[in-house]
Write a structure and sequence with these properties.
258 residues; alpha/beta; five-stranded mixed β-barrel; four-stranded parallel β-sheet; 29% strand; extended
Length: 258
């Protein structure tokens, strides 16, 4: 019996999946549900977390962040639990928060739902800042007689900030309105995070050393607002020393508003 010839056109392959290439893709709801169930299965039902309170918003429900030097977690304490709390969270307070961690799918947010707060003293960051301020004050860093006089009509000012931040635009706008003849040398740098303070200190030293070459009359260090941890890089001893040693006057506009 003769065999029929092989006809490749009759090979149809596996059936195509509906919806193009998304047959194996998860929906956003499925992903959030899996995150929620994974957290629920992998963490104890109740946790005691020690940290420092940041940016509290004490309405009927209390919203705040708990942080240490390396991380932050969003927290909420509902009104029913807040009413029983002997104290409200204040910025800089060091507390132990007891509660559960859950993932709020509608906003894609993981939060600590706090049921009880226990104060444990002042925040570590606030203590470190106070200690540094005391040291600098004892060494005369804040004495008026050591401050450099500002130029009445500056020819050129160096501005150390992030070029993408609103602070630079505020400085440029103010210069156009108040001192249109002055020039601006914008120095782009990180203004948040590890190593930012040391980097800014080195920029101050470099600009001061090249002040005549660059035609500089003053230096402005600036960035917009933020939490204590966002602005922490400016609480740097190396940066304070660089400003102290700088022959040019240095204006610091940290955490300013438009």
């Amino acid at each position: 019996m003769a065999r029929s010839l092989f006809d490749p056109s009759r090979i149809t392959g596996p059936p195509a999946q509906a919806g193009g290439d998304d047959g194996n893709a998860w929906s956003v709801s499925k992903l959030n549900s899996r995150i929620e169930s994974t957290l629920s299965a992998g963490l104890p039902a109740r946790l005691r977390i020690v940290g420092e309170v940041s940016t509290p918003n004490n309405r009927s429900h209390w919203y705040f962040n708990l942080k240490d030097e390396n991380a932050v977690i969003s927290c909420v304490m509902f009104a029913s639990d807040a009413k029983r709390s002997p104290t409200a969270p204040r910025h800089g307070d060091r507390v132990i928060a007891t509660g559960r961690v859950q993932h709020y799918a509608k906003q894609g947010r993981t939060q600590l739902y706090v049921e009880r707060l226990e104060p444990v003293g002042k925040g570590a960051l606030e203590e470190r800042l106070k200690k540094l301020i005391d040291e600098l004050r004892a060494e005369g860093y804040f004495d008026e007689e050591h401050k450099r006089p500002l130029p009445t009509f500056p020819h050129r000012i160096a501005v150390i900030t992030s070029r993408t931040g609103a602070a630079l635009q505020d400085v440029l706008d103010t210069m156009r309105r108040r001192c249109p003849g002055g020039g601006v040398l914008a120095i782009d740098t990180r203004v948040q995070g590890d190593g930012a303070g040391e980097r800014i200190a080195r920029l101050v030293e470099s600009l001061d050393a090249r002040s005549e070459e660059l035609g500089l009359d003053a230096i402005v260090i600036t960035r917009g607002g933020g939490s204590l941890e966002d602005l922490w890089c400016f609480n740097d001893r190396a940066l304070a020393d660089a400003i102290w040693d700088c022959e040019l006057p240095v204006v610091c506009a940290i955490g300013h508003e438009t």
